Fold this sequence. Notes:
Layout: H1 8-20, H2 23-30, H3 34-48, E1 53-56, E2 59-62, H4 64-85, E3 87-88, E4 91-92, E5 94-101, H5 102-109, H6 113-119, E6 123-130, E7 143-148, E8 155-162, E9 166-168, H7 171-174, E10 190-191, H8 196-204, E11 215-216, H9 219-227, E12 233-235, H10 241-245, E13 261-267, H11 274-289
Helix pairs in contact: 1-2, 1-3, 1-4, 2-3
Amino acid sequence: MDRPQLPLNALRAFEAAARHLNFTRAAAELCVSQGAVSHQVALLERRLGVPLFRRLPRGLALTDEGLALVPVLGDAFDRIGETLDRYEGGRMREVLTVGVVGTFATGWLLPRLDDFQRAHPQVDLRLLTNNNRVDLAGEGLDYAIRFGDGAWHGTYAVPLIAAPLSPLCAPAIAARLATPADLARETLLRSYRPDEWPRWFEAAGAPSPRLTGPVFDSSAVMIAAALAGHGVALAPPAMFEVDLAAERLVQPFAVEIALGRYWLTRLNSRRESAAMQAFAAWLSAAAGAA
């Protein structure tokens, strides 16, 4: 059926009737008469040459043909509605989808989001958190903010914030730590990168103990365990400044190791939209001021 010939009123009437399985309730939703809905559905059935409903004594039942059409129409009307909702103040809001490693999202980005949204109300920002493992193409992301060395194949990366690692723990545990060697008596919480604690002990000039503590795929979750007194985390203090300032969390030693930083990344093949350019410029400026 040619698009110009689509009976949109009939399709809308059918979709509402299919959800309610009742012409009267569909008519109330569409603010028309029950007879108008029934007429439009009958018109659509004649155009398609198939029955879409079985008219029963106590209501309606969808035929196989009707069942096949319902999800297609529902999805189409939802997509039309979502697009129309993006028009505000005479301009279209542009969707921007950003994947963010959870630690950066909670520790740095979220407290600053109001500033971005006030400056760029035309951008409909969608944030998807991850544990630093991300597939830009497969997840349909415009950007991804992640931790590492900036060398991701096929990816353009802009440096944001340095994030050296240091031991962080609850005050009760910190009170037991006089030297780095004292950490050997504590539970050392670990990330999925096994070299972090050995490299920190090397930088601190102390032997690395055997590592047996639990492994976490998120620094934010690991810090939650540290706050609860379950051990000592090796994490970036810059992402937990609020907890450190409130003295819920303590950095017992000044020694830090730099194993990477946070980067704003996109596929080399991804052409930057206006929303992407606005976000990148804002993020770089905010990171530079931090």
